[in-house]
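Troubleshooting log. The previous structure file for this entry was overwritten by mistake, so regenerating from the original sequence record. Sequence copied from the archived sheet and checked twice against the printout by T.R.
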Amino acid sequence: MEKNKKLLQKKWAIILIVALIISILIILIFFLKNANKKSNFGNNLNNKTLAEIEEYILNISSYEAEISVEVQSNKNQTKYLLKQSYVSPNIEKQVVKEPSNIEGLETIYDGNKLTINNSKLSLTTIYENYEYLTDNFLWLNSFIEDYQNSLQKNIYEENNQVIMEVKLKSQNPYVSSKKLVINKQTGNIEKLIVQDKNQKNLVYILYNEIKINSLKKEEILAFRLQDYSIAQY
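Regenerated output below.
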């Protein structure tokens, strides 16, 4: 009797151990699958069609990026290092990191007014009822708006890159097109290029870092006006 009892206990112990191992394996597989989905979401575009990639870009609702910018004029070339934040439909913040003479210059547009902060001079200027310039070549959302509203646009593959191109009907006669370059393997936005009618680069933007759809409006507009002297126009 005692022997049977011990055998039964041993049997149940083995069953419990096996059940525990199976449970751990199921949980481990579940987490690994989820982790893999998260790591691949929006990044690996190898198996995506051009239409799916286009849809992904056009549905960007917010982004935060550090960009290197080269602006080419007739006389010289100017370089900037900027940090940009954007939340749909029209909330924008931009901070200059380089060059050093305007480092810390911050512009914030809240959909109605433009605020310019100079952190070195501790001054703020507010422009009420600011009519926002829709042809702002430095912004990804401006490219998206142009692409959505244009009949002259194209998306194609070239050297393992996806290129979205739009022809512009701009008031500026020298500006002809914009090109957004996306790395198909990583899914990262790499470049935004503004060109003239001779395909010469006027604005060349390199995305050093970019985070898509991770920002909220409050994160951009959360700054304290009382820390600055305010002049209104």
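The first helix runs from residue 2 to 40. Archived copy saved in two places this time.
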